[in-house]
């Protein structure tokens, strides 16, 4: 099963909220399922964004799901959609790279950022989800603050969100583990 097929299966089996189908239909019109998750770090390859999203869901379920207090639907929403801000965010560009064997300069493709809607990271993902489907407060907080200290915003709001909404902490931890421990070997600057 491809990462795209796995994403769609997890989403359609677990997300039953009004607007979910429309959100998925919209995602299918974007480059979400083909895009990288980053330009040169984790999953910096074709399909990297969807691979990362599925990895975060699997990590959250394996490490942090509590049947008594957690919702599979909320985990699926947060994990699968936390980075939808990266749809239509990257473009393939070209740069000159010296071939060490021949000494010649060659054009190589690489991913560059072309943010057409510079609204922030977590808040942009919340905004995009809510164009189609209402988020619960803890889901919105989790998606907004999933970057933790890697976010450009310096504020006490993040620690307050983590104190009040355990889902936010669980998403952040799953995102970190997926990025730095589970996704090793999936990065490639060049496609």
Summarize the entry for a quick read.
The protein is mainly alpha-helical and 191 residues long. Helices cover 48% and strands 9% of the residues.
Task: Tell me about this structure.
The protein is mainly alpha-helical. The chain is built from eight helices and two strands, in the order ααααββαααα. It has a two-stranded antiparallel ribbon with strand order 1-2. Strand 1 (90-98) and strand 2 (105-113) form a beta hairpin. Helix 1 runs antiparallel to helix 4, helix 3 runs antiparallel to helix 4 and helix 3 (48-64) packs across helix 8. The radius of gyration is 17 Å and the shape is globular. The chain starts with a helix and ends in a 9-residue tail after the last helix. The relative contact order is 0.18.
Distance between the termini: 21 Å
How many individual helices?
A: 8
Rounded mean pLDDT is 89
Q: Could you estimate the helical fraction of the residues in percent? A: 40-55%
Q: In which order are the strands of the major sheet placed?
A: 1-2
Overall 3D form? globular
Total number of beta strands: 2
What is the percentage of strand-forming residues?
Answer: 5-15%
Q: Report the radius of gyration as a whole number of Å.
A: 17 Å
Helix and strand pattern: HHHHEEHHHH
Quick one: biggest sheet? 2 strands, antiparallel
Q: Which runs of at least 5 residues are low in confidence (pLDDT < 50)?
A: none
Q: Which structural class matches the secondary elements?
A: mainly alpha
Question: How do the strands and helices of this protein lay out in sequence?
Answer:
Blueprint lengths: L2 H12 L5 H10 L18 H17 L7 H10 L8 E9 L6 E9 L8 H9 L6 H8 L12 H8 L1 H17 L9
């Amino acid at each position: 099963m491809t990462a795209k097929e796995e994403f769609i299966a997890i989403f359609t089996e677990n997300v039953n909220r009004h607007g979910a189908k429309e959100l998925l239909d919209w995602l299918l019109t974007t480059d979400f399922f083909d895009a990288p998750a980053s330009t040169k770090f984790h999953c910096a390859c074709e399909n990297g964004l969807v691979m990362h999203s599925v990895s975060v869901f699997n990590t959250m379920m394996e490490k942090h799901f509590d049947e008594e207090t957690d919702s599979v639907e909320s985990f699926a929403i947060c994990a699968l959609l936390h980075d939808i801000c990266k749809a239509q965010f990257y473009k393939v560009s070209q740069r000159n790279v010296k071939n060490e064997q021949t000494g010649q300069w060659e054009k190589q493709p690489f991913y560059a950022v072309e943010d057409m809607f510079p609204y922030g990271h977590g808040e942009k993902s919340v905004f995009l989800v809510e164009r189609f489907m209402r988020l619960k407060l803890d889901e919105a907080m989790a998606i907004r603050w999933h970057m933790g200290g890697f976010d450009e915003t310096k504020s006490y709001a993040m620690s307050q969100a983590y104190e009040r909404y355990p889902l936010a902490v669980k998403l952040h931890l799953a995102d970190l583990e997926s990025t730095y421990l589970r996704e090793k070997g999936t990065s490639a600057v060049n496609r």
